[in-house]
Amino acid sequence: xxxxxxxxxxxxxxxxxxxxxxxxxxxxxxxxxxxxxxxxxxxxxxxxxxxxxxxxxxxxxxxxxxxxxxxxxxxxxxxxxxxxxxxxxxxxxxxxxxxxxxxxxxxxxxxxxxxxxxxxxxxxxxxxxxxxxxxxxxxxxxxxxxxxxxxxxxxxxxxxxxxxxxxxxxxxxxxxxxxxxxxxxxxxxxxxxxxxxxxxxxxxxxxxxxxxxxxxxxxxxxxxxxxxxxxxxxxxxxxxxxxxxxxxxxxxxxxxxxxxxxxxxxxxxxxxxxxxxxxxxxxxxxxxxxxxxxxxxxxxxxxxxxxxxxxxxxxxxxxxxxxxxxxxxxxxxxxxxxxxxxxxxxxxxxxxxxxxxxxxxxxxxxxxxxxxxxxxxxxxxxxxxxxxxxxxxxxxxxxxxxxxxxxxxxxxxxxxxxxxxxxxxxxxxxxxxxxxxxxxxxxxxxxxxxxxxxxxxxxxxxxxxxxxxxxxxxxxxxxxxxxxxxxxxxxxxxxxxxxxxxxxxxxxxxxxxxxxxxxxxxxxxxxxxxxxxxxxxxxxxxxxxxxxxxxxxxxxxxxxxxxxxxxxxxxxxxxxxxxxxxxxxxxxxxxxxxxxxxxxxxxxxxxxxxxxxxxxxxxxxxxxxxxxxxxxxxxxxxxxxxxxxxxxxxxxxxxxxxxxxxxxxxxxxxxxxxxxxxxxxxxxxxxxxxxxxxxxxxxxxxxxxx
Length: 706
Hints:
Strand 2 and strand 3 form a beta hairpin. Helix 2 (22-42) runs antiparallel to helix 14 (419-445), helix 4 (90-100) crosses helix 7 and helix 17 (489-504) packs across helix 18. The chain contains 24 helices and twelve strands. The chain is of the alpha/beta class. Among the domains are: 235-356, no CATH class; 448-686, P-loop containing nucleotide triphosphate hydrolases (Rossmann fold), CATH 3.40.50.300. The protein is rod-shaped.
């Protein structure tokens, strides 16, 4: 069977489909927009506030800004992403929740669900209250849903956004989260500096111990080997320097002890003991005055003006004593430092004197080794002490690596729902859904409403479109207009169908052409089309025979107004002799009609497969020009599938707007499977209204016994 090519898409066809289904598209758009309006009416508006944080990826240092600039190039991206993840961390979120007390709000805390509220209203028992952990987890989950942290492009700016039902709360939480992040960042830097300080202090103590050990080792070496050193050097300066160094060390130790006692007395405000330890005349005089005032206050009347003046004088005197004591302790500290310096100078002079003396190689090696160890220990101690002071200073002057460059402000307009966006999406979704439904209805669900649609639906030529015409009361079928009104539009449409059939299967001289007229379901104008097409052939001078092979529901006899005694079914069942009983001439044309009379009370597929029926068609081919067979519908019954192999051409009738496309496809598949391979199908779209406005299957199923 040959079918027309449909490899190209016709824009006009698509536009015509949309035009036909414009009502469906409009309804779909209206439904989507209605849903959008209902959603917007019920949606709770949400407000989003955003705070901007600038992150210094290199780390900010007031003591060494150049070091931060050197590190910025290699750490920028990684540091930015790390800070973003810190802002998203649950621990930071929990701090913000605690600071802002979000867990106490209905929006983010634990509240009764609609089900629990209904139970409470009717007096049912409510579930147990959530535990503290459950409250925290629930609040944290809602907080994470409302919080958004994003880096702004390739900049060093991070946007911290928070969404809430209340604009003020949204701004407060966004700012609180940013400040909590900066505070934790600063605390972390301070803690790191203090931890480094503690480590260096421990190492400094070890270095100090090592330095003292090396200094003591050198002194012990000189004390143990003084006689040998003096003998080898021949210099009395060594002994003098040794004696001076020993005296300085002893004095330093005494001062250190006095310093310790003085500091303890100053911290305890024991000014008498402080004066005795230091031995300062000024401080002693002040403490004596203090004792006198204390005795005067003890002898005065409590609350009297004199007692108040004495108390004020005592307070001033104690402040002067504290100041003088601090000064005296500072002088004592300076003395200790001076003796330490003097001791170091004497040690250096002694080392220089020894090294410049003519000592033996072994002695020089020993002295040099001790000197180097002392110098190394001294350098290590000085380096650690310097670094310790730097870290202690850093801990005091630390600043955060991030700062808020733009605080969040309460938004004026809600960020959700976005009315314009939702309505636009609803409009586009409605248009898209409407177009989709239009094509689905056009090609899969709805009835066929145009020749273009029919041509797109089935790979078959559309022979004609029979126009819409109401059937007058005095006519049984619109096929009568082919004879009664030959110049009418409906008669011309049937002649156009005849031309399409002739084109599909040209005449073969000496051999009659068999045309089967079928439909997918009942009430599609199949019998009317068969009669009208047969009359057009008869009017054209063709010897034409119309066979009513719809054995389930014959109707041609009622169309031509004849009531035969027997029908073609009786003939096929060999229940009648002769052809006169079921054959008659059309009263309106030269057409011959083999009629039916009654519905079959037995299965009708067997008579149509019989040799009698095949011989009938074969004899008709030899005697006539055109044989038109009116068949039963293909979908409800199987009869037409046994007639199809005998046909040269098939006319498939489709009723306008009624036939379901799924049934039409099923019918076409069955028809093409049954027809010979070179047989073409011509479709016809019937728009006229017959006596029946709808179809039913029960006229073709299970008639026995009715």
